[in-house]
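Lab notebook: predicted structure, single chain.

Context: the supervisor wants predicted structures on file for every construct in the current expression panel, including those that have not yet been purified. This is the next one on the list. No modifications to the sequence; it matches the entry in the shared construct table.
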Amino acid sequence: MPKVIFYRNNCIGCSICQEMQPAIWRMSKKDGKAVLLNSIEKKKIHQLEIHPSLAEAIKEVINACPARVIKIG
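Prediction complete. Output recorded below exactly as produced.
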């Protein structure tokens, strides 16, 4: 299964991820950064296994993110 890998500490809070995929992303009211819903945090890196059919949509978000803090692996 592919994984979304999100380096939240480096997020700039532009909200493009939430705008493009509101079912997967939310913006934190606490610090203004994105939250990868249902992800697991390991060493300050958030990871979420996704269905392979979502991989292309995630790649669009990766390309749109100005901070380049989202990867797929």
